[in-house]
Amino acid sequence: MNNTEEQHPVFIPRNFIEKGTFMGGMFKIRNAIEGGILAILITIPVVNLPLTLTVRIIILCMTALPAAMISLIGIGGESITAFLMNALRFLKNRRVIYRMDVHPEPKKVPD
Questions:
Q1: Burial class of residue 60, CB neighbours in 10 A (0-12, 13-18, 19+)
Q2: Which helix (H) or strand (E) holds 86?
Q3: pTM for the predicted model, two decimal places
């Protein structure tokens, strides 16, 4: 008889020792802080509205909750502020690229 021990491979998840995460590696700390700040910035004016409590809660559920969730998840793997800074930097520095040896056809003027 053969008494050899079988070794089974154990897969270690990528976020096993990942630092800077929140809730067991689900969210990055930066995204969680930005989501909390964004939710507070939206909540303060809504709470001060002269409406009933039910209406204010509905408005918060329609505005602050989705904004905080999008901020927690991020856009394209980046935090909201990093994404906005990259978008503004792109808009500021964008260039039109064209070839010098190709001339576009002139536009025909209708008779």
A1: middle
A2: helix 80-93
A3: 0.65
Give the CA diameter of the chain: 97
Please name the residues in contact with 55: beta carbons below 8 A apart, sequence gap of 6 or more: 49
Q: List pLDDT tens digits, range 55-84.
A: 999 999 999 999 999 999 999 889 999 999
pLDDT tens-digit series, residues 85-99: 999 999 999 887 776
DSSP string, 37-74: HHHHHHHHHHHTSSS-HHHHHHHHHHHHHHHHHHHHH-
- What span, in angstroms and rounded, lies between the C-alpha atoms of 71 and 37? 10
**One-letter identity of residue 68:** A
Torsion of CA 94, 100, 101, 105, to 10 degrees: 70
